[in-house]
Amino acid sequence: MNILITGGWSRLAHAITDELSDAHNLRLLDSVPIGKEGKFQMMDGSILDAADARQAVRGMDALIHTGEPPPDFPEGGLEREQMMLDFATRGTHTLFSAAIEAGIKRFIYAGSLSIFEAYPDDIYISEFWKPLPSPEITQMTKYLGELTCREFARDHMVTVTALRLGELVLEEEVRGKSPNPLWLDLRDAAQAFSCALNLNHSHHVWWTQRWAIYHICADISNPKFLVDKARQIGYQPTHNFQEENDSA
User: Fold this and answer.
1) Which of 64, 53, 49, 54 is nearest to 2 (CA)?
2) CATH for 2-246?
3) Which of 141, 178, 188, 210 is the most exposed place for a label (fewest CB within 10 A)?
4) What pLDDT band is residue 248 in, cutting at 50, 70 and 90?
């Protein structure tokens, strides 16, 4: 399968690439140097530019949109927030529009479980819970990006899978720290994208679920976020931070 991965500079895109490169032909898109070598094609361009988006999706069978903005955005302030909002909404719309014109039927979006942080930690949250995103720019842009994706699933004969990811870390980076219910090892996150790619085997979109959401995080004791639904598509997290820290 030919797969386009956006946000190619990001750690998430690198982890997905490591997971998928042996079985698929990958193209990584970003407006900054990607800084990684491997079995994939690199492309410079921005999802905010319609011409770049059309070129990026050409010849692709599936699209993985990480939603990760390029690192050359301003460090902070109103200008950065405006650019991130534009990237999450207009950028996602421009990218998906180009992909649909190119005949792509399968889309995967990297959302965020941070949109549930307003809930207390002593409850179990599944995909049926209502998100409560704060005005904080990262939460808001991830949520708005997800809503943009959902509308494409409603308006077009395509399948869109939203993977709401926890806080991306590597287990070895946080070893010895108190477990965080949001933690998600990058390698487990990448596994979830592989599962989502295998979710629908039919080439006929009307035989598949056009919009689906899965919560993706570590499988710790007394979790805040349930991964039962994700297990149904084959997700099996292997990095359990709580067990690792308890044994230290």
Assistant:
1) 64
2) 3.40.50.720
3) 178
4) very low
**Lowest-confidence range among 64-73, 81-90, 226-235?**
64-73
Residue type, 191: Q
**CA 196, CA 64: separation in Å to the nearest integer?**
10
Question: Are 233 and 196 in contact, with CB atoms under 8 Å apart?
Answer: yes
Domain parsing of the chain, residue ranges: 2-246
What Cα–Cα distance (Å) separates residue 225 from each residue in 61, 121, 222? 31, 9, 9
pLDDT at 229 exceeding the cut of 50: yes
**What is the average per-residue pLDDT within 154-165?**
95
In this predicted model, what pLDDT tens digit does every residue of 2-33 receive, in sequence order?
999 999 999 999 999 999 999 999 999 999 88
